């Protein structure tokens, strides 16, 4: 009887350890729930903010009228504002809900750009981050729980490949 209890405790411990060892592969929403908040309220891309309308005068005067999709997706509309900046809207709305930036000259509000290393990200954004892996790529992410924003830095051998700034519901 005592031996069965010890074996059961050992098996449960191994399973729990395994789960926490592989947490890097859990979904964004898992990480968002357990990561402390970071203020991302000033984040923008070239003066454009989440929730700005893609057909607003501010965007049209800067980039032109955006109408061609940059990719086919059943849930969202994707558009290039210009080379290196892609935005997303819901299918039935015109408000920007995601930025995907791979322009090596464009910095985040806190000064991160494509090519920067993860130690610089942590230095500028702080220790309240999560790490995960998607499509074989290491990612460092931050969550603003008040605004429901998230910024993720996708990392390759040379540093940041691109960053994605969006609402946490984007998944």
UniProtKB/TrEMBL annotation:
Protein name in the entry: Lipoprotein
TM segment ranges: 6-26
Domain of life, source organism: Bacteria
Keywords in alphabetical order: Membrane, Transmembrane, Transmembrane helix
Source organism of the structure: Romboutsia faecis
């Amino acid at each position: 009887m005592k031996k069965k209890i010890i074996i059961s405790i050992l098996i449960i411990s191994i399973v729990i350890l395994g789960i926490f060892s592989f947490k890097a592969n859990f979904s964004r929403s898992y990480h968002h729930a357990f990561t402390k908040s970071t203020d991302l309220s000033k984040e923008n891309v070239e003066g454009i903010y989440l929730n700005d309308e893609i057909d607003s005068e501010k965007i049209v005067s800067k980039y032109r009228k955006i109408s061609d999709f940059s990719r086919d997706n059943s849930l969202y509309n994707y558009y290039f504002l210009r080379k290196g900046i892609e935005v997303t809207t819901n299918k039935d709305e015109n408000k920007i809900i995601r930025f995907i930036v791979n322009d090596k000259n464009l910095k985040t509000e806190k000064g991160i750009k494509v090519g920067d290393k993860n130690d610089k990200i942590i230095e500028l954004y702080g220790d309240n981050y999560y790490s995960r892996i998607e499509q074989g790529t290491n990612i460092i992410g931050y969550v603003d729980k008040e605004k429901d924003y998230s910024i993720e830095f996708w990392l390759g051998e040379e540093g940041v490949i691109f960053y994605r700034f969006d609402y946490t519901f984007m998944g």
